[in-house]
Write a structure and sequence with these properties.
There is one protein chain. The protein is mostly helical. It has a domain of 152 residues: Alpha/beta knot, CATH 3.40.1280.10. 57% of the residues lie in helices and 3% in strands. The strands form two sheets. It has a seven-stranded parallel β-sheet. α39 runs antiparallel to α40. The longest helix has 20 residues. The protein is extended, with a radius of gyration of 43 Å. The two termini are 41 Å apart. Its EC number is 2.1.1.34. Belongs to the class IV-like SAM-binding methyltransferase superfamily. RNA methyltransferase TrmH family.
Length: 1141
């Protein structure tokens, strides 16, 4: 038989030709290279270069002929492999799964051919592939080539290729593609064993291993593994050393960038803290990492004060000490900042005198600040810039300063540096050179403060010397301000002289149309923007000079709603002020709601004016609607001394606002927490609740007791509905607001207080408030003594609360107590000092110790007081002083210290969230120190719950946990049909048909998959679908070959396998069992596992070729069948598979 001479023209024909080639070879005793076979296969590759199926069939043929156990010693020429490499890899830029599979098959063939014939032209093919992987052109399969053939490259091309691989590995390491990065880790693990590589980098093997270990764990993104790894391995890199080679520095830089860019906030936090603690900014600059580090710290979450150990201003200040300001600014201006991180960096410069910095850098920083979204924190950042860069700002020219203003401020920001602008205008020799920078935005900025008048006076003096056509926007503003200054003629003389303005038209008695027309003409307004500005400011001026009373509007036939629409806020302010003095009903019933809609939290005077009119002139329904609308916009007036005269808020609305407030999360919450620290602005919603409490305290028309009863009922209903809740959850916050309002407002006993104080699962600060409240509001001690009768029947947490009430009541009302009452208290609490619950026992001891101490020497001396005191001191020993810091023991001292805002003190010491506790309470320093100690205890308890806090900084023995996927999972292996008997010669089949417990079967399936067993026999295949199976199998059933063999057909199955050459190994104790430790598994084994209880039945024992038992040294009869099976499978793998893998 000869080779086929007809070229294939289709995939089917290709298959036929390949089959003919294989048949031809099988019928010949072929040795060596066959030229005509090479030509035939080359023609097939050329003809079907775009047909992956045909190419795969050709590669299958080549692979079959190259198998090491093939009886034909066929050798292919280099031409065929060069052709295949060109078609499959070099000329193709596809990167699909099917193409990767084709590449994998080709690389296996190349590898097999090169290893079978190592001394001939196979090396040339490797050189071709090596050149492809080094090519500057983007070769999508370069990493796959290197991963498959790295050992062959080093072996055949010499160890010098290892140094060349470093550059490729670096590139792969920085790729966005996960497979590329994993390929880099694989190559790095190989490179450490190549001669000369570590020497070229001038790093140690420990450095290199640590480097690879860190990156591999980062790739998996498992915080519980990554953080311990970092703590152990990062110190081994020697980042602080000063003698790194340039090459090793470049590798360290890549790793640091990877850490600093990690999306896992815990990893980033760890990295930033480590660098802050161990390096300075100057040291970091040696790695060229300043910009990257600064950008990495631009994560608001890093500064979250509600978690343990956030980044602080002091840490950043220490880190940046001594580093050149201009160099740091160069890095900072490249970052699109968030508010909190930027302010921390700016505050790091507070304690040094900054030198002059380049104007461009200052303007770049200003642009970043202007882009900040939070107006309060943006204002803080602006103030920092004004303070820090004063020298540079002073040195700016007038035009540069105006550019600085525009770059730094939004129009809603408060510009307060008017004196600086006045000085620069006065010192300007030629205003004409700078006039183009006097923009509308700059005018709007300076017009927000009263200092604007002095600015415009200075400006107009200089403007006289500038040609009129160049005057720009600023010419429009001062004329409308002349009534606000002491010497208006300073403004008016300029306009009369330069613009020929008739100043008489700016006074009363002139129509609005006349004023607008005259000024539009004289000021030369051309653009729509200029005309609009003049018209609306004319309305403001007209209303101010002509409307002194509300009746004047009617007299001049003016519609106030139209005036509000045509003017600015100045018109609204004027009309609101005259409305307050108006005593007649308005013709337009919608005007009040129109004016209310224009209010905001800063328009307090206008708010007051509207309410003063409404309370005097509206009916009850209209007023209630008005006051609710006003208070939705502005609550600051609630704290005014006379507010109750014009604010009469409905009880239901007050109750609603006492509890109102949404909880923010994420960056927005952190920014709100810093608004108070940086911007001196308390949380708006929390402040509103405080203001409604203040209003309720002083409003005589409000039924405060009824409000307190309603609040207490809400609390008790919430306790019944949701008895357990998390700290700072929605339920906890509602309870905090209720408890604070009741404590601040209540002054008489309420029946529901006992239910509130004895709630068994309240958070501690809620319990503290009600314990204090009950002790404060109890009319006398009788109800307390009645409750003590039931003390022994209460839950431990309830007992502690009741003891706390006793403690607070007794110490704050000591003078009202009688000796018999104290005797009852002592006798009731004494048994609890020997109770089973530790917390109850300890707290009872502490309270009795305090009461006994108080009794000694007083008129209420108890016979057992001194003995009891000494006994407790002996029992607690040195720990007594430590236990005295218990938070509950401070409750009576809140009364003794005379603290007015007791609710705020309790919330503060229990570390309540910042938006639930904003009021400041005054107390002596020594007592505040006690409260601070308690607060730190609460903070520490909360910190213990965070994952980062619980993660060990490092592993004590230097080992780190790794759970990595096998590196072979990066790219596909070959999928050739197996034409050899290699695998068939070594196989273990696990037979579990006799096992009926699904967890055992699921565990066995997982073991089989992990150790490479292909086939698992079950009694019912449907067992693998049950949840009890899948909970343990961890998806192993998806890859295993699961075969169903029912117990009754098991004998027939075993006989069939014995005929195929398999040996049956049974895990069973028999009279002739082989010791497991001495047993050598046959290469082809069937592992038969018995029933959990009955083992292998007697009728199957006879089929066993080997009965094997595990030696035992304890008393339990046997191991679990899953454990037994796992041990057997592992022993087989160790003997037959482990070396190959």
């Amino acid at each position: 038989m000869s080779l086929p001479v007809t070229k294939a023209t289709s995939a089917t024909a290709t298959h036929a030709v390949v089959q003919a080639v294989e048949t031809y070879i099988q019928n010949q005793n072929l040795l060596g290279e066959i030229a005509e076979l090479d030509e035939m296969l080359c023609d097939l590759v050329d003809l079907h270069k775009d047909n992956e199926l045909a190419l795969k069939r050709v590669l299958q043929c080549i692979h079959s002929l190259l198998q090491t156990n093939s009886k034909w010693n066929v050798r292919f020429g280099p031409k065929l492999f060069h052709k295949l490499v060109s078609v499959v890899i070099a000329d193709s830029h596809e990167d699909t799964p099917s193409r990767r599979q084709l590449v994998a098959n080709l690389l296996i063939c190349v590898q097999l051919h090169g290893r079978k014939f190592p001394r001939i032209q196979g090396k040339f093919v490797l050189q071709q592939l090596w050149a492809l992987s080094l090519s500057n052109d983007r070769q999508p399969h370069a990493a796959q080539i290197l991963v498959h053939l790295v050992d062959d490259f080093v072996h055949n091309l010499g160890t010098e290729c290892g140094v060349q691989l470093l550059g490729i590995t670096q590139t792969l390491l920085q790729s966005e593609v996960r497979e590329d990065r994993r390929s880099a880790y694989f190559l790095m693990s190989k490179l450490k064993d190549v001669d000369g590589v570590l020497a070229a980098l001038q790093c140690s093997e420990q450095n290199w291993n640590a480097y690879v270990g860190i990156l591999e764990n980062l790739e998996e993104q498992q915080s519980h593994l990554v953080l311990p790894t970092l703590g152990t391995l990062v110190p081994r890199l020697g980042l602080m050393a000063s003698n790194h080679s340039d090459d090793w520095m470049s590798w360290l830089r890549i790793l640091c960038i990877r850490l600093l860019n990690d999306n896992n906030s815990l990893v980033l936090r760890w990295t930033v803290k480590y660098l802050l603690a161990n390096l300075s900014l100057s040291q970091l600059s040696h790695f060229n990492l300043v910009t990257e580090f600064v950008a990495a710290t631009n994560r608001t979450q890093l500064y979250n004060s509600e978690i343990p150990d956030p980044l602080t201003e002091q840490q950043i200040r220490d880190f940046m000490a001594g580093y050149p300001v201009d160099k740091l600014l160069e890095a900072m201006v490249t970052v699109q900042w968030h508010c909190v991180p930027l302010i921390h960096w700016l505050m790091g410069w507070r304690e040094i005198q900054l030198p002059l910095v380049p104007k461009e850098l200052l303007l770049g920083l200003c642009a970043r600040i202007r882009a900040l979204q939070n107006p309060v924190l943006r204002g803080s950042a602006i103030n920092e810039v004004i303070f820090l860069f004063g020298n540079t700002i002073n040195a700016l020219s007038l035009c540069d300063y105006l550019m600085f203003m525009e770059s730094l401020y939004n129009t809603v920001d408060d510009y307060a540096d008017h004196h600086q602008l006045i000085d620069k205008i006065n010192n300007c020799r030629n205003l004409e050179e700078h006039i183009e920078y006097f923009s509308k935005r700059c005018a709007e900025l300076i017009s927000r403060k009263d200092y604007q008048y002095d600015v415009f006076v200075a400006f107009l003096e200089k403007l006289r010397l500038v040609p009129t056509e160049k005057h720009g926007w600023w010419r429009l503003v001062p004329i409308f301000l002349h009534r606000e200054i002491d010497k208006p003629e300073q403004y008016l003389d300029f306009y009369r002289d330069v613009y020929k303005v008739d100043s008489s038209l700016l006074k009363s008695g002139v129509s609005l149309d006349q004023m607008q027309s005259h000024l539009l003409d004289r000021l030369g307004c051309r653009t729509r923007e200029e005309k609009s500005f003049v018209r609306e400011n004319c309305v403001d001026l007209f209303v101010k000079v002509n409307i002194q009373t509300w009746d004047k509007l009617h007299e001049l036939h003016l519609n106030p709603t139209e005036l509000l629409d045509q003017g600015t806020d100045a018109t609204f302010k004027t009309l609101a002020n005259i409305l307050a003095e108006h005593t007649k009903p308005l013709e337009d019933v919608t005007l009040i709601s129109t004016m209310v809609s224009r209010l905001d939290r800063l328009k307090c005077r206008e708010t007051q004016a509207i309410l003063q009119y409404s309370v005097a002139n509206l009916n009850d329904d209209e007023y209630e609607k008005c006051v609710v609308g006003v208070l939705e916009k502005n609550t600051f007036l609630l704290g005014c001394l006379d507010s109750e005269s014009y604010i009469k808020a409905p009880k239901a609305y007050v109750l609603q606002r006492l509890l109102e407030g949404e909880t923010t999360t994420g960056d927005a919450r952190i920014e709100r927490s810093f608004e108070n620290e940086f911007g001196q602005r308390s949380d708006v919603e929390a402040m509103a609740r405080v203001q409604f409490i203040a209003y309720s305290q002083k409003c005589k028309t409000l039924d405060v007791n009824s409000i307190c009863v309603d609040l207490l009922n809400m609390n008790n209903e919430l306790s019944r509905k949701k008895p357990r809740y998390f700290a700072n959850s929605k339920e906890h916050r509602r309870k905090m607001r209720i408890a604070k309002a009741i404590l601040d407002l209540s002054n008489q006993w309420m029946p529901g207080l006992w239910e509130a104080v004895l709630c068994p699962s309240d958070q501690l600060n809620i319990s503290f408030i009600y314990e204090y409240l009950v002790a404060k509001l109890l009319p006398d001690i009788a109800p307390l003594l009645d409750q003590l009768k039931n003390l022994i029947t209460l839950k431990p947490s309830q007992q502690v609360s009741l003891i706390s009430v006793v403690h607070t009541y007794c110490l704050t009302r000591w003078d009202t107590l009688q000796q018999e009452q104290l005797t009852i208290i002592f006798s009731t609490l004494l048994p609890l000092t020997m109770g089973a619950n530790f917390q109850t026992r300890l707290f009872a001891q502490l309270v009795l110790h305090r009461l006994a101490t108080k009794c000694i020497g007083s008129s209420l001396d108890q016979p057992i007081a001194e003995v009891l005191k000494n006994s407790i001191e002996a029992t607690l020993g040195d720990k007594l002083a430590e236990f005295q810091k218990d938070a509950r023991l401070l409750l009576p001292e809140l009364v003794e210290q005379g603290i007015e805002n007791v609710s705020d003190a309790i919330l503060w010491m229990t570390n309540a969230p910042f938006d639930e506790n904003i009021s400041f309470f005054n107390c002596r320093y020594a007592f505040r120190k006690k409260l601070m100690d308690v607060r730190e205890t609460f903070q520490a308890k909360r910190g213990e719950q965070t994952p980062e806090h619980n993660s060990p900084a490092c592993s004590l023995n230097g080992n780190v946990q790794r759970k990595m996927n096998p590196i072979g999972d990066i790219y596909p292996g070959c999928d050739f049909e197996n034409t050899s008997n290699t695998q068939e010669d070594r196989e273990i089949i696990v037979v579990a048909s006799l096992i009926d417990k699904l967890p055992n079967l699921g565990g066995l399936a997982r073991t089989c998959d992990v150790l490479g067993v292909k086939t698992l026999i079950l009694g019912l295949k449907s067992q693998a679908e049950k949840s009890d199976f899948t909970n343990l199998s961890m998806t192993a059933e998806k890859t295993l070959n699961i075969v169903e063999v029912k117990p009754e057909t098991l004998a027939e199955f075993l006989i069939g396998k014995q005929l195929e050459g398999y040996k049956i190994v049974g895990a069973e104790q028999t009279a002739h069992s082989t010791n497991f430790t001495e047993f050598k598994f046959p290469k082809k084994s069937i592992l038969l596992l018995g029933h959990e209880k009955h083992g292998i039945p007697a009728d199957l024992i006879g089929f066993l070729d080997y009965a094997v038992e595990i030696p035992q040294f304890g008393t339990v009869r046997s191991l679990n069948v899953h454990v037994t099976g796992s041990l057997f499978i592992w022993e087989y793998c160790k003997q037959h598979l482990a070396k190959d893998n």
